Amino acid sequence: MSDFFDGAEKRVVVVGGGFSGVAFAIQLIRRAQARVHVSIVEPGQFLGHGLAYSAADPDHRLNGPINSMVIDPEYTDELLEWCQARRIIENDFEAHVPSGHVFLRRSVIGEYLSDQVFRHANDERFGSTIEHIRDVAIDVQKEPNGFLVKTSFCGDQIADMVILATGNPTPGLRKPFSPEHALHPRIIANPLVAGCLDKIPAGARVLVVGSGLTALDQLSTLLRRGHIGKLVAVSRRGLRPHAQSPEIRGIVSPRMPPTPILNKIDGPIPEFIAREPANVRRWCRALRREISSVVRAGGSWYEPFDAVRDVVWKLWPQLPLAEQQRFLRKLRVFWDIHRFRTPPMNDDMVRQAEELGRVQYLTARVIGVTTGAILNPVQVELEVRSGQTDRHEFDFVVNCTGFDSDDTTSRNPVLANLEQRKILRRHGTGMGYQVSDRCEAMDSTGRANPNLRIIGPPTAGTFGDPLGAIYITAQVKRLMPSAIEALGFPVIS
Length: 493
Ligand SMILES: Cc1cc2nc3c(=O)[nH]c(=O)nc-3n(C[C@H](O)[C@H](O)[C@H](O)COP(=O)(O)OP(=O)(O)OC[C@H]3O[C@@H](n4cnc5c(N)ncnc54)[C@H](O)[C@@H]3O)c2cc1C
Hints:
Elements (H helix, E strand, L loop, with lengths): L9 E6 L3 H13 L4 E6 L36 H8 L20 H15 L8 E5 L3 E7 L2 E6 L4 E4 L1 E4 L22 E2 L17 E4 L3 H12 L6 E5 L10 H4 L11 H6 L4 H4 L5 H17 L5 H8 L2 H4 L5 H19 L4 H12 L3 E12 L7 E7 L4 E6 L1 E4 L7 H4 L2 H8 L19 E3 L5 E7 L5 H4 L5 H18 L7
Helix pairs in contact: 1-3, 1-16, 4-12, 8-9
The site of flavin-adenine dinucleotide has 34 residues, from helix 1, helix 14 and helix 16.
């Protein structure tokens, strides 16, 4: 036990109240053996919703089964119990797949996370509290005894520790779209805004740009509404996310009892990778070899792939920057379609529509976009692989090309200010910030600050893939003992 704890309440300000901020707050309240006040600065109405779990559409589901959603590694069945108490699973007839796995609606996760905050808002053991400050943090200033978190309207928040949990950047248009196109009523630049498809009439010709999971969500929404107009999804390489493994879908039985993901995340690097030097080409070759051998033995590519996926946080930091950049340039798209898999019900819905000719997937590049008056359709020029170009007319265009990575920093005032004052250091890959293995923010000289931490997606440059909820939960668990220590609380081992 540490001997410098003075018994006073400590104040932690968490900037961002999405999944990461909430997972941190809950784990801290549960682990700290002393009184802590957590202020979560979040402009949204509900804590825990963030970008992913504010989804209002019932067809927008988790892309993994219920056991992939955990906020505290020590209570892995909490969500299931919470759902059972509310009969959520019984009442959601489409949530089940033949294997017995359940794919919840993302809106349920939003409600669950909000409820967890509510239940921990006044913790009885030590009198710890959580408060929602509905505002935007614009800066963090160092003070002799901690920090001042400056917000737009609610004044300055005093903090002993600041956690930056600002999450994913918002989706943005890519070239040849221009920033002005985001304002055009026929172009939906951010498909994660609830109700953004409401203005699309059933007969409209719709171009979905992108063919990943967000495109699948948007197509599901339109199909469920009985859309009868032309639906075209276009992507440069024509790649689409893979389905969940045959074991999860219930097409075959598992070959062996599944290991809980959290154990795999904490477990050793698989032998077939560990024996190779830190080199993307060598690791890919080793993974391919392992896949061939597992497939020969009656398994599928999912087993070895997932074994690597779960320890990416250990592998990625071993790679030199040039290797990381090479991976992002050349291999990431291929990695992503294996890594981010489809919820089976959405996959089925869209594939059936495709067979009926209601949805068309095209491999082509958008090379030109012309908008006119509001009543006029959008003219889109597409180039197929052979180089041939065609002009098409669409009534609406829905952008599903992913996040605008520049937005992570430059458009978020708190990050931009900290970066400008060299308190944060951008990661060399451009994906978020440089942090220590305990998520301590590093300044421009490389010095880590134990009282200023960054969690979740803005640590992608350092850890490769802190993106799925369970990987964020595991990240928070790893940093928690050092955060508790940095607050001067007793650390119970
Ligand atoms: C559409 C979508 C679907 C996903 N589906 C799944 C899934 O099925 N399964 C899974 O495991 N993972 C999924 N993920 C990934 C994962 O769960 C998220 O990346 C995770 O929720 C990240 O949480 P976060 O809190 O870090 O970020 P976010 O959800 O982006 O939340 C960040 C919050 O910070 C706030 N914020 C930002 N800047 C400031 C500021 N300056 N001041 C105050 N507040 C600020 C924002 O308002 C926002 O609410 C999905 C992600 C997305 C985007």
